[in-house]
Specification:
Pfam families: adh_short. By secondary structure, the chain is an alpha/beta fold. 46% of the residues lie in helices and 16% in strands. β1 (8-11), α1 and β2 (32-37) form a beta-alpha-beta unit.
């Protein structure tokens, strides 16, 4: 199991939604948490930090763009310097753009891949470098999706990016095994978050509209805490024998 203990975590895309829920759950687990998001979300980040501190853990906000290698490296160095180590990396930041294949522009595709693939790659890479240097093992966890296991209508760019996360995760798990670093990802179905409820109607109307665009109108809807609980376990020392996996969190929407 190495001498790994979950002391300090970084969560990207931590200002709201799944990232916020994961950050608060890890704080409840006794972990100090650095939350990252874009600089434009500084106010939301500050609120999450206050909630983490209210639980009794250290928390810091680190605005950074995960598509920039320099900013990712700077984020990880700051956490290591200010909080003492990097034990957990949750590469949660992601975006979605919905359009048919024949209507998807190259610019749209590249914008999604930049955040969802390059961002995950950079966080995995530089967190792993830091963990190897510290020599204590660690946990790296990324955000895939059911759209990373099955193609959905109107979501070619998003599906491509989330399939890629699974490939990066499986490869990294094999390469980092000797350093006692586990690498896994979570694959949620429809979860009630700002990403799925934003729009012109009520939250429930907007969520239903999203499901219909994916041609899944009857799909079950979960809450962020279900994802946070799975991530919580994967961060614990006893999860040392789980690596290279992608966990469905979707009710009965898909079973494989």
């Amino acid at each position: 199991m190495s001498n790994y203990t979950p002391r300090v975590a970084i969560i990207t895309g931590g200002a709201q939604g799944l990232g916020r829920s994961i950050a608060l759950q890890l704080a409840k687990d006794g972990v100090d948490v650095a939350v990252n998001d874009l600089a434009s979300k500084q106010e939301l980040l500050s609120e999450v930090v206050r909630e983490i501190q209210g639980i009794g853990r250290r928390g810091i906000a680190i605005p950074a763009d995960v598509t920039s290698e320099d900013e990712v490296k700077g984020m990880i160095k700051r956490v290591a310097d200010e909080m003492g180590s990097v034990d957990i990396m949750i590469a949660n930041a992601g975006i979605a753009r919905l359009s048919l294949l024949i209507e998807t522009s190259v610019e749209e595709l590249e914008s999604v891949l930049a955040v969802n693939v390059r961002g995950v790659f950079l966080c995995y890479k530089h967190a792993a470098i830091q963990m190897i240097e510290e020599g204590h093992g660690g946990r790296i966890i990324g955000a895939s999706s059911l759209a990373g296991k099955e193609g959905f209508t109107n979501a070619m760019s998003y599906c491509a990016s989330k399939f890629a996360v699974r490939g990066i995760t499986q490869t990294a798990a094999k390469e980092l095994k000797a350093s006692h670093i586990t690498v896994n990802c979570y694959a949620p179905g429809f979860i009630r978050t700002p990403m799925t409820t934003i729009g012109p109607g009520t939250a429930e109307e907007n969520l239903q509209s999203i499901k219909e665009k994916y041609e899944s109108p009857q799909a079950e809807v979960g809450e962020p805490q279900s994802v946070a609980s799975v991530v919580s376990f994967l961060c614990k020392p006893e999860a040392h024998f789980i690596t290279g996996q992608s966990f469905n969190i979707c009710g009965t929407t898909r079973v494989d």
